[in-house]
Structure formats: structure tokens, C-alpha cells
């Protein structure tokens, strides 16, 4: 699920995103200068709103590729190497292309697959965070 992964990355100890809850949705920001007294970021490069029920994304500023690059840069600053690739999965229903994100850094290794690159990257970053906390 998209929303729990975004919330994890927006936790204060993570700092990858900034989260502001609203009625019926949650807003996530990245690439901002500072947080204003109102709690909103100053001039964010990325602003997305995610609906609670459907988890549909509305991009208010920036887009998915910009968020992918922001999160990969954030991971690199934490000494993680992230790899994102398109792979084919084969099963009884035929082949299907999926995105696989893998992360290596120090003692932490994680990988995740999803139908879109953003979901794969979010999952692998959250897995890495859980691994770091467990270590």
C-alpha cells in the first residue's frame, strides 16, 4: 500500500518527506527550503496529495520521476545504493513486466517488486528502515 510507505518515509526520524494531513487525504512534500510556522514547506519542488480511501495520487507540483530521483538521492545521502530495474516475471498466467528495486548499504540489504517504479522504491526504502531498526 502506498500511504503507509509514504507515512514511514515522512516520519521525523526519516526525513525523506514532509507530511501534512488533511480531511480525506494526506499531503506529502519534498525538496523544500524550510518548514514555515504554519507547518507547510517553503517552496517545495514536489507536492502530492494521496486520497485516504482510493490512495489515488494528485500531483500538485512535480511528478513521479521527480519524486523517484529525490528519494534515490535521499537514500544515497544515507550511504545506500539503490538499483531500479524492469524485470520479467513468469507464472501460469504468462509473463509480466514488473519493477524491482534493490538497496545495499553497509549491513542493510533489501529488495521489492511492484508494477510501478515508485511503489517498488517506496517498499525497498521502508524495508531498509525496518532492517536498520532491527539491527
User: Unreliable segments (pLDDT under 50, ≥5 consecutive)?
Assistant: none
Order of helices and strands: HEEEEHEEEH
Indicate the radius of gyration in whole angstroms. 15 Å
What's the end-to-end separation, in Å? 25 Å
**Number of helical segments?**
3
Helix content: 25-40%
Report the sheet-strand fraction. 35-45%
Category by helix and strand content: alpha+beta
Describe the secondary structure blueprint for this structure.
Blueprint: H1 2-9, E1 18-22, E2 25-30, E3 46-51, E4 57-61, H2 64-77, E5 81-91, E6 94-105, E7 108-114, H3 117-134
Helix pairs in contact: 1-3, 2-3
Key terms for this structure?
135 residues, alpha+beta, four-stranded antiparallel β-sheet, three-stranded antiparallel β-sheet, 3 helices, 7 strands, globular
Amino acid at each position: 500500500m502506498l500511504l503507509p510507505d509514504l507515512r514511514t518515509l515522512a516520519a521525523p526520524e526519516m526525513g525523506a518527506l514532509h507530511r501534512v494531513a488533511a480531511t480525506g487525504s494526506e499531503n506529502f512534500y519534498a525538496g523544500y527550503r524550510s518548514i514555515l510556522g504554519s507547518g507547510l514547506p517553503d517552496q517545495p519542488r514536489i507536492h502530492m496529495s494521496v486520497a485516504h480511501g482510493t490512495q489515488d495520487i494528485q500531483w500538485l507540483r512535480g511528478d513521479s520521476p521527480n519524486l523517484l530521483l529525490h528519494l534515490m538521492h535521499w537514500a544515497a545521502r544515507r550511504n545506500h545504493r539503490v538499483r531500479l530495474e524492469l524485470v520479467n516475471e513468469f507464472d501460469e498466467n504468462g509473463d509480466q513486466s514488473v519493477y524491482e528495486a534493490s538497496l545495499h548499504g553497509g549491513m542493510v540489504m533489501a529488495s521489492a517488486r511492484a508494477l510501478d517504479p515508485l511503489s517498488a522504491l517506496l517498499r525497498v526504502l521502508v524495508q531498509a528502515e525496518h532492517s536498520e531498526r532491527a539491527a
